[in-house]
Amino acid sequence: MEIEFSNSFIKNLNKLSPQIKTTIKNRIKQISIDPKIGIPLKANLKPYWKLRYRDYRIVYSFNSDKIFFYALNHRSKIYKNL
User: pLDDT of 19-47, one tens digit each?
Assistant: First the structure.
């Protein structure tokens, strides 16, 4: 399955501490194995899924060919730009 990242996802990933960054990368690997590991979002965010780690959220979508990682941010900021 193809995996793509938004520019803002990469930018926010690079801002994290090394420990959190390593865990987030492991979560990305888990999602690439089973995209339904996350929780589907509701209402106008229905095509998106989320996976949380501590106070951080990973927002992504997927189909049979590709997983696209849209956003990575603190839980207080994540949904403001979607």
Answer: 999 999 999 999 999 999 999 999 888 89
Q: What is the CATH number of the domain that holds 57?
A: 3.30.2310.20
Number of domains making up the chain? 1
DSSP 60: E
Instruction: Tell me if 34 is assigned to some domain.
Output: yes
Q: What angle do CA 43, 44, 49 make, to 5 degrees?
A: 80
Statement: the pTM of the whole predicted model exceeds 0.70: yes
CA-to-CA distance for 82 and 76, rounded, in angstroms? 13
